[in-house]
Amino acid sequence: MAVKVLDSWALMALFHDEPAAEAVEELLATAISKRHRLLISVVNWGEIFYSVMRDGSLELANRKAEEMAAIPIEMVPADIAQARQAAIYKATKKMSYADCFAAALAKMENAELITGDSEFKEVERDIRIHWLK
After folding, report:
1. CA end-to-end span of the chain
2. In this predicted structure, what is the pLDDT of residue 92?
3. Which of 5, 4, 22, 3 is closest to 13 using CA atoms?
4. Residue 63 CA to its chain's centroid (Å)
5. What are the residue ranges in the chain where pLDDT is below 70?
6. pLDDT value at position 1?
7. Which of 42, 62, 41 is nearest to 114 (CA)?
8. For strand 128-131 and strand 112-115, is the pairing parallel, antiparallel, or unpaired?
């Protein structure tokens, strides 16, 4: 079974009904039918939570957290190996630290990263990326 890692960009596109939302919905549907596994780093989950809270409210962030819990995405805790790889990316690439965790998880799981965030061009040679538009 293929493994895919979602960056926060992908879920935020879904939540804001942006053009990439349809592609994200298709990924969720294929995950439900067990054609692939979807993963997200707990750090990227936190990035979504604080972004929704900052732009809305704690109540809205809690509702989005409930929505995320109801969809077929496995939340992966950050461990020392993931933090180490994220730190290597942060030290050597021009990327946000949260994005480094998504890239690290994709590398460690030999997974394809799902994003539309151009910041990930920094790691295109190191991990597979499915670019959303």
Report:
1. 25
2. 98
3. 22
4. 18
5. none
6. 79
7. 41
8. parallel
pLDDT of 34 reads 84
- Name the pairing type of β-strands 112-115 and 74-76: unpaired
Residue 14 corresponds to which tokens in the numbers above?
A: 């879904």
Domain ranges for the chain: 2-131
What type of residue is 43? V
Residues in the chain, overall count: 133
Contacts of 96 (CB under 8 A, 6+ apart): 119
- Both tokens of 50, joined, read 């604080």
Fold of 2-131: Rossmann fold (3.40.50)
Please, what is the average pLDDT of the chain?
96
Return the structure tokens found at 112. Answer: 């394809």
Backbone dihedral angles phi then psi of residue 126, each to the nearest 5 degrees? -100, -30
Burial per residue of 118-130, b for 16 or more beta-carbon CB atoms within 10 angstroms, e otherwise: ebbebbeeebebe
Q: Please tell me whether the overall predicted TM-score, pTM, comes out greater than 0.85 for this model.
A: yes
What's the confidence (pLDDT) of residue 100? 98
Quote the strand ranges of the chain, DSSP E.
Answer: 2-6, 36-41, 74-76, 112-115, 128-131
